[in-house]
Amino acid sequence: MMFGRKLLDDPGVATTEEPPAGAAARAATMPAAEPLPASTVPAQPAVPAVPKSPLSSRHPPKHGPATATVGDRRRSVRPENVIRSENYSTIRQAVFASLDIASALTRPVEQVRVDVEAIAGEVIRGGDLPITQTEQRVMVQEILNDMFGVGPIEPLLQDETVDDIMVNGPDQVFVERFGKLELTDVKFRDNAHVVSVAQRIASSVGRRVDESSPMVDARLQDGSRVNVIIPPLAIDGASISIRKFSRKEFTLPRLVARGTLTPAMMRVLEIAAACRLNIIVAGGTGSGKTTMLNALSRYISETDRIVTIEDAAELQLQQPHVVRLETRPPSIEGTGAINQGDLMRNALRMRPDRIILGETRGAEAFDVLQAMNTGHDGSMTTLHANSPRDAITRLESMVMMANGNLPLFSIRHQIAAAVNLIVQVGRLRDGTRKITHITEIAGTEGDVIITQDLFHFAYNTAVQRDDVSGTHESTGMRPVFTDRARYYGMEAALMEAMRP
């Protein structure tokens, strides 16, 4: 704050700082200084800018804007961002007061832009506001983003280098680029602005977010996945997390070019998908499970009838015969909820050739195994796990959630009979994403599930640097599904790909 700050060697600037003990007594005994002629009075030094506190937007000063005392004059210190915010609010209020918003939203954006620019120009000229043409264009775009898009974060959605957007209240927006988190300079007006954007996202897919339902999973029109949580559950303000769905089509060849896997691994996965193996893609949060699932789905035959089941639809299958199902949250009365387990049981009555479950996370795991064991070969799903063995353990736990009466012996035999391949993906410490294991379930011995790695990522521990060094290696093991590959005429290609 400016108050109480002492400006050294400046006799013309008053200060409210308390003098040290005894200073008043010494000053009383000193002769008064004669005033200097006007021509010799030194020029007043510039008052240094007051740094803006990071909490100033959340806790505005109680006594009005800060002021600096220079000689006998007091002038207001108004940061440029405050002035800009006031000008923007003036223009925005005029636009929303002049336009019929409901009618405007039915028109093309460029037509509405012309009207908004005209209103903004009149307000600027009429109020003689100090706004440049560039600032005016930026403000108009921000207003259009509020009307048609998702407010201040709309430019981040258009940025192809951004993978994730995380809004932590009105003053903090993080993004993930190339696997690394970074803070942006994007801000919302206040928490009400964040909540308004969140409600617009939810309502666009027929869902709601308010105090009675403060959490919601939804999706944007481009397929991006959104999670929203608002007060009172979010203590420091509404939070919006967006997992962007890339406009680029991530095929296995493109993932090979990025170093996610090798050409030999790609060939094995192509054969596995074409041979109708049941595949689980496992990995941590943000490791690329859905991207891998989309890439694998490209090798499903176009003659297959595919049913997809998701909480928020984001899979983008290219086949012509796809039925997409999405869960439904409960109503205001707490009734009418449809979960993934309900959709799984319904999907079995729809004569699917393959069922793809976006993510297995609970009791629906039992239904997934039942589907894989009842003729729906070639089904796929994802789940959170840190290793292939962890993925098996999680499946066991989730099946027990659904049916606690089943003995563990029976559950393990069902898993071994249903699941053929586990593709483990991971996000490494340098932000890169790689397949760390391709693991085959080979059967059981007693009540123990036997697995064998076909490929794994070997870290080079001798090299210590920021980026992770290592290579993908084939174990040279003969896959258990070789007989199935022979049935589909792909045995020779499989054995060639498995060569170390």
Report what the structure shows.
The strands form three sheets. The chain has a nine-stranded mixed β-sheet with strand order 11-10-12-13-9-14-15-16-17, sandwiched between helices. The protein contains 16 helices and 17 strands. Among the domains are: 149-247, 2-Layer Sandwich (Beta-Lactamase); 252-497, Rossmann fold, CATH 3.40.50.300. 30% of the residues are buried. Helix content is 33%, strand content 20%. A hairpin with a 5-residue loop joins strand 6 (215-219) and strand 7. The chain is of the alpha/beta class. Mean pLDDT is 80; it is low at 1-77.
Structure, briefly:
With 500 residues, the protein is α/β, with parallel strands linked by helices.
Q: How would you describe this structure in keywords?
A:
Beta-Lactamase; 500 residues; 16 helices; 6-stranded antiparallel beta sheet; Rossmann fold; alpha/beta; 17 strands; 9-stranded mixed beta sheet
Query: How much of the polypeptide forms β-strand, as a percent range?
Result: 15-25%
Could you say what the CATH architecture of the domain at 252-497 is?
3-Layer(aba) Sandwich
CATH superfamily of the domain at 252-497: P-loop containing nucleotide triphosphate hydrolases
Q: Please work out how many helical segments DSSP would assign.
A: 16
